[in-house]
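Hello again, I could really use a second opinion on something today. I've been staring at a protein lately and its backbone has me curious. Can you walk me through what the tokens say about the fold? Take your time with it, there's no hurry, and the full record follows here:
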Amino acid sequence: MGRKTRLFGLLAIFAAVSLVTATGAFTSVEASRTATVNVAGDGSALLAMDPAEGPNGDEYARISNGELEINLAGYTSSATGVNPNATTDVQSVFVITNQGSQEVEVSINDSGDNPDVVTFYNASDQTPSASDGGLEPDEGGTAYTLTPGESVTVSIKVDTTNIGANENLIRQITVTAQATTN
């Protein structure tokens, strides 16, 4: 085989490798697409949160500026909080509804000065234990699975047996919905 033939063959191989490598390589791509994302109030969002129907939903939960607000002192009473050295169980305060298109696991995290004394739980669990944790994984509870269109009614249990009067308990709750892998 001649020198020119070998050189030509070697150049052909390098050219083929260069073409294969160059066709799939890039360092960045920018592509514009149409996307619509809107912010909705708690009642019409993908994860809807509304006061429960009934006296406790009417008294202790409301929508204010598009967001669910909970006040266990009530909105129409002269009370300023729950009793000290007691266990208070407020049934059916608010409802969480999955208005999305996939199954989600819903959990609640509360924060404030004494979040461990307040438990948010599924209202169908009529008598949760004090150590149950309800819908709060950070307190030993478990998330609740909601299929699209399904709701869970949330009750609130407050155990102040080791808390004195005039103590702040919680200031905020965070409701989290995590899509399941199904």
About this structure: The longest helix spans residues 3-24.
